């Protein structure tokens, strides 16, 4: 049934229009995509032409980029402001520990660790997604705390003292660090590219609609619960991979730090100051956060105060984040996710 | 649904509502409301403020649960079905107080309806949205974020999103208020066109001169009960007699 919106109705009264077209891509987007490929290729070569001194900070940066993008998938697109993603950082790390303890190669087991975090997030999602807004945020945090306590109380998981990553003694230190570096790069690239692809897909349209108004989204046929669940679980899956990579990087993990809420604070900081609900924003936010971390680390406790001040200043003067305030008024888009139509005048 | 109940429902009705009841705490808002709408029929739902018209649409659309009674789409009991499932079965509604997806553009708002409601993809979905935006006169602002629209355009967007779903049953909630005469005439033309495509329409409207140009039957709801039902002329005359008798208008 056409309900009056079929072909005949479409042309009536619109003779003066130009050709109707929907644009989802641009020359800028092609340049940005090509530039990204070149940048990733150049970064992949770092272990060959730069030393471990360059690798170490970049591993941190890649993990931040991945975490920000994954948090943005859930909070920026689907509207789920979680404060408990550290649960999946820890789940990924401890799943890697379990896999390596059973004799699996730690680097080969990173995808398994991510999958474990994703699987864990499924039953959790049924509990926390019944709540919304602040209740959801607190519930996710509480669940992360429960997980931290459970690990602390489990002697087989090292308890409060934490565990070292088994199975890495066979690796030459240089190779081990290069492998960690490549994994961190791969996780960051997959996170950004994956979120980009999802945001452009029908799922992305659903998620943005659910974020704007879940009641209206349901009445327009969007499966609200399923959309939120996918966003939550995919974000957890990626966060689990980051947890495993960070463990492989430091070779040591402890429940007190890996399950700390400061990880969620950092994710939110990066996404909000960068520009929530965009692809560019979390990347920019991660770069800013990383730069601030490096620049302010000498200031001891002042570091947190200055970081907080920077966050407040940006939310006050650029409420859409740095990228949002810079790009939206000028119509810039490096990684477009929307629909732009022409032929309407 | 038992076989006898299935027989009781008018097989041909696209939508039937059977003795629907609903209360907010101790306040009864709907009580034993029943009617059906056939494909290609427009039923006007009238009644004073607070009569329960919007609550009834919420129940039909699945945004609210009723305490008793049933809602059937083409004979299928959907009383326990979620709103999104009902939408995918061909039910679309507009909200009396518009609920646009503020962060999405006007085009994308209707696209959600085309993709999820009508199940269209790619070019077919885009053309469907374009048709809906042309009919609601929104094509010129297609790229604007919905949050930037004025109230009248938000109401138009409600209609556009619903039309993009290509519904078999369409619920309209006060879409004619505040329009000029030519705009009203255009809206009436649009609703007629949708009806002529075979869609069953329930139109809640206070602007009777618009409603009576399309509706072939009126149901008057008052304090949650069906006060009168029938041809528009009869119902309005009946209501006029009552108004004279009680000394105040029921509409
Ligand atoms: N969430 C709610 N909680 C309590 N009472 C409510 C709620 N929503 C509506 N009501 C009451 O239910 C009754 C019916 O409201 P409803 O909005 O369905 O009326 P209506 O016929 O659509 O009125 P109008 O013509 O003004 O839109 C009113 O008395 C209203 O006060
Ligand atoms: Mg109402």
How would you characterize the overall build of this protein?
The complex is a heterodimer of chains A (about 350) and B (about 250). Chain A has about 350 residues and is mostly helical. Chain A has a single domain (about 55-345), classed as ABC transporter involved in vitamin B12 uptake, BtuC, CATH 1.10.3470. Chain A has 16 helices and 4 strands. Chain A has a two-stranded antiparallel sheet with strand order 1-4. In chain A, helix 4 packs antiparallel against helix 11 (about 225-250), helix 4 (about 50-75) packs across helix 13 and helix 6 (about 110-130) runs antiparallel to helix 11. Chain A is globular. Chain B has helices at about 5-10, 55-60, 85-90, 105-115, 120-135, 150-165, 180-195, 210, 230-245; strands at about 15-25, 25-35, 40-45, 70-75, 75, 90-95, 170-175, 200-205, 215-220, 225-230. The relative contact order of chain B is 0.17. Chain B is built from 9 helices and 10 strands. Chain B has a domain at about 1-90 and about 210-250: P-loop containing nucleotide triphosphate hydrolases (Rossmann fold, 3-Layer(aba) Sandwich). The model of chain B is unreliable at about 1-10 (pLDDT under 50). Chain B has about 250 residues and is α/β, with parallel strands linked by helices. In chain B, a hairpin with a 2-residue loop joins strand 4 (about 70-75) and strand 5. In chain B, helix 5 (about 120-135) packs across helix 6 (about 150-165). Chains A and B meet through helix 1, helix 9 and helix 10 of A and helix 3, helix 4, helix 5, helix 6 and helix 7 of B. Adenosine-5'-triphosphate binds near residues 29, 49, 52, 55 and 96 of chain B. Chain A: It is found in: Cell membrane. Chain A: It is a multi-pass membrane protein. Chain A: This is Branched-chain amino acid ABC transporter permease. Chain A: Keywords: Cell membrane, Membrane, Transmembrane, Transmembrane helix. Chain A: It holds the Pfam family BPD_transp_2. Chain B: InterPro entries: AAA+_ATPase, ABC_AA/LPS_Transport, ABC_transporter-like_ATP-bd, P-loop_NTPase.
């Amino acid at each position: 049934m056409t309900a009056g919106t079929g072909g005949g109705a479409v042309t009536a009264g619109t003779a003066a229009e130009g050709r109707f077209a929907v644009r989802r891509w641009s020359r800028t987007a092609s340049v940005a995509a090509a530039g990204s490929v070149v940048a990733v290729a150049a970064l992949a070569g770092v272990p060959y032409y730069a030393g471990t001194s360059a690798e170490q900070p970049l591993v941190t940066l890649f993990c931040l980029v991945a975490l920000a993008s994954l948090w943005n998938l859930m909070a920026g697109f689907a509207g789920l402001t979680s404060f408990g993603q550290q649960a999946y950082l820890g789940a990924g790390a401890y799943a890697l520990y379990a896999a390596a303890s059973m004799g699996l190669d730690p680097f080969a087991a990173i995808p398994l660790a991510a999958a474990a975090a994703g699987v864990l997030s499924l039953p959790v999602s049924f509990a926390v997604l019944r709540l919304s807004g602040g209740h959801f945020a607190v519930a996710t945090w509480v669940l992360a705390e429960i997980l931290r306590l459970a690990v602390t109380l489990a002697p087989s998981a090292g308890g409060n003292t934490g565990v070292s990553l088994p199975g890495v003694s066979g690796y030459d230190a240089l190779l081990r660090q290069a492998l960690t570096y490549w994994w961190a790069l791969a996780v960051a690239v997959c996170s950004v590219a994956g979120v980009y692809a999802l945001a452009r897909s029908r799922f992305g349209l659903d998620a943005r609609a659910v974020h704007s108004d879940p009641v209206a989204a349901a009445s327009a046929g969007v499966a609200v619960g399923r959309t939120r669940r996918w966003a939550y679980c995919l974000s957890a899956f990626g966060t689990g991979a980051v947890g495993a990579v960070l463990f492989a990087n430091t070779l040591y993990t402890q429940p007190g730090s890996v399950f700390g809420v400061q990880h969620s604070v950092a994710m939110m900081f990066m996404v909000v100051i960068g520009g929530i609900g965009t692809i560019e924003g979390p990347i920019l936010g991660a770069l800013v956060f990383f730069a601030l971390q490096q620049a302010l680390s000498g200031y001891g406790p002042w570091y947190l105060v200055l970081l907080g001040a920077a966050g407040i200043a940006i939310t006050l003067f650029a409420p859409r984040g740095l990228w949002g305030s810079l790009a939206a008024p000028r119509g810039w888009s490096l990684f477009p996710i929307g629909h732009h139509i022409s032929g309407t005048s | 649904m038992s076989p006898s109940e299935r027989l009781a429902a008018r097989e041909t009705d696209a939508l039937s509502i059977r003795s629907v009841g609903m209360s907010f705490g101790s306040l009864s808002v709907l009580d034993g409301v029943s009617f059906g709408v056939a494909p290609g029929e427009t039923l006007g739902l009238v009644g004073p403020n607070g009569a329960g018209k919007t609550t009834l649409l919420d129940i039909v659309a699945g945004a609210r649960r009723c305490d008793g009674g049933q809602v059937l789409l083409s004979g299928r009991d959907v009383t326990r079905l979620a709103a999104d499932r009902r939408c995918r079965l061909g039910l679309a509604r507009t909200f009396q107080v518009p609920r646009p997806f503020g962060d999405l553009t006007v085009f994308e708002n209707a696209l959600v309806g085309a993709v999820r409601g009508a199940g269209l993809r790619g070019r077919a979905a885009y053309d469907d949205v374009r048709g809906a935006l042309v009919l609601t006169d929104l094509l010129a602002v297609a790229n604007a974020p919905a949050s930037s629209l004025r109230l009248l355009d938000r109401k138009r967007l409600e209609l556009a999103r619903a039309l993009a779903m290509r519904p078999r049953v369409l619920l309209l909630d006060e879409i004619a208020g505040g329009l000029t005469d030519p705009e009203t005439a255009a809206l009436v033309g649009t609703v007629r066109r949708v009806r002529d495509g075979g869609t069953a329409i329930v139109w809640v409207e206070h602007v009777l001169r618009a409603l009576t140009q399309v509706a072939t039957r009126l149901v008057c709801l008052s304090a949650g009960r069906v006060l009168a039902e029938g041809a528009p002329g009869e119902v309005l005359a009946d209501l006029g007699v009552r108004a004279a008798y009680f000394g105040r208008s029921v509409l």
